[in-house]
Design goal:
Structural class: mainly alpha
CATH topology of the largest domain: Growth Hormone, Chain: A
Number of domains: 2
Radius of gyration: 20 Å
Helix content: over 70%
CATH superfamily of the largest domain: MFS general substrate transporter like domains
Order of helices and strands: HHHHHHHHHHHHHHHHH
Strand content: under 5%
Distance between the termini: 33 Å
Largest sheet: none
Number of helices: 17
Oligomer: single chain
CATH class of the largest domain: Mainly Alpha
Number of strands: 0
Shape: globular
CATH architecture of the largest domain: Up-down Bundle
């Protein structure tokens, strides 16, 4: 029996690592754009604001692709859906690397975002099903940690490859990595039958209930709040916290390390305390950190420590959010799992816009955190309502 358990654990670990390879590739492709934006703009002879549409195109692809692709493949075995998503990612990465013009590259960015939300939705279901009892949240965290690791090394890797020869090397790397991921998933992820087919309308039926909407709103508002601040982290640290500009790459590495630590620890705590409670713990931490940043951002040590803890708190709620939407999306698990990434990306966009309002009014950068406090407080209300109405009943 012990030998059998060891064999099962070995198979599960290989499957989870293979799936995490995919989230790492998606994370690199999404976040590296921020590091190489000036180089891309220069090569295509467009302004920085115009090149910024390349970031928005990816986010739009995430929001469009998740429901579209999952509707097309909702009757397929889960492994086949994942392999299809990997093929789309590889094709889009190859097109980005070879793009002859800005218009083609913009289209390729949109296509690269299409499999993002769907991939997280399907892999969360797979991770939940193959994990041992009581380890679901940690299994989902292992899969999603690839995104956090991408934040940790994505910007330095993209900057390094761009400095060596060209930004196109980054997407050549993404393409090769995608092929390796596809092969690993084909080899190590077990076959899992398709979810019950309850029809097109049945897939959306779970959205008639309050529980998934509270989780979606908690995700949306939490990300809005953090990205009000984090979108302007570089000028805040350099202009207010006294961090030299040449230290910003190291600051981003620290922030990425916080994401990795928060992602894994959030999964473990969620398995013990419950995903709803973990979500509220994470949002409470975000609220406290943003308050400290607003009042003490001129203190270098406090500012840096709060940055790391804030990014850790942001990613600590990733696995709990995925698991909650899987639990409360009966019949629509594929779409429910993808809704987290839709809310995440929409929150990023709204947060970046809202955080820029006080700057445009001539206020200092710490006021971005003050705007973020409003959104995070809304997330805290959503999680508190969810716990009182659903998590407490489930525990009893």
């Amino acid at each position: 029996m012990p030998l059998c358990l060891k064999t099962i654990n070995f198979i599960v670990k290989r499957a989870l690592v293979s799936l995490a390879m995919g989230t790492f590739g998606l994370g690199i492709t999404e976040f590296v754009m921020m590091a190489i934006l000036p180089n891309v703009a220069s090569d295509f002879s467009v302004s920085i604001p115009v090149a910024g549409h390349l970031i928005s195109a990816y986010a739009l692809g995430v929001c469009v692709g998740a429901p579209m692709l999952l509707m097309l493949g909702r009757t397929w075995p889960l492994k086949r859906i994942i392999l299809m998503l990997c093929c789309i990612f590889v094709s889009a990465s190859a097109l980005m690397a070879a793009s002859p013009s800005y218009a083609v590259f913009l289209l390729a960015r949109f296509c690269a975002g299409l499999p993002h939300g769907a991939y997280f939705g399907v892999t969360s279901i797979v991770a939940d099903r193959i994990s041992p009892d009581g380890k679901s949240a940690f299994a989902v965290a292992v899969v999603s940690v690839g995104m956090a690791i991408a934040n940790l090394i994505g910007i330095p890797l993209g900057t390094w490859l761009t400095g060596i020869l060209s930004w196109r090397l980054v997407f050549i790397f993404s393409c090769v990595w995608g092929i390796a991921t596809l092969l690993a998933i084909w080899r190590f992820v077990p076959s899992i039958p398709p979810l019950p087919n309850i029809g097109f309308k049945g897939t959306f039926r779970f959205l008639k209930h309050l529980a998934p909407w509270l989780v979606i709103l908690g995700t949306l508002f939490g990300n809005c709040g953090v990205f009000c601040y984090y979108s302007y982290i570089a000028p805040l640290l350099t202009n207010m916290s006294g961090i030299p500009a040449e230290m910003m790459t190291f600051m981003m590495v620290l922030a990425g390390a916080g994401m990795v630590a928060g992602n894994l620890s959030g999964g473990k705590i969620s398995d013990k305390a419950g995903p709803g409670h973990m979500g509220r713990y994470g949002v409470m931490t975000m609220f406290l950190m943003l308050a400290l940043i607003f009042f003490f951002s001129q203190n270098t040590i406090v500012s840096v420590v709060c940055m790391v803890i804030t990014t850790a708190a942001l990613f600590s709620v990733s696995a709990p959010q995925q698991l909650l939407l899987l639990r409360y999306s009966d019949g629509g698990e594929l779409l429910g799992g993808a809704m987290v990434q839709i809310a995440f990306n929409l929150g990023n966009a709204i947060g970046a816009f809202s955080g820029g309002i006080p700057i445009s009014l001539g206020l200092t950068y710490n006021y971005c955190a003050l705007v973020g406090l409003f959104f995070v407080s809304m997330a805290l209300i959503a999680y508190t309502l969810f716990i009182r109405r659903y998590e407490s009943k489930r525990a009893s």
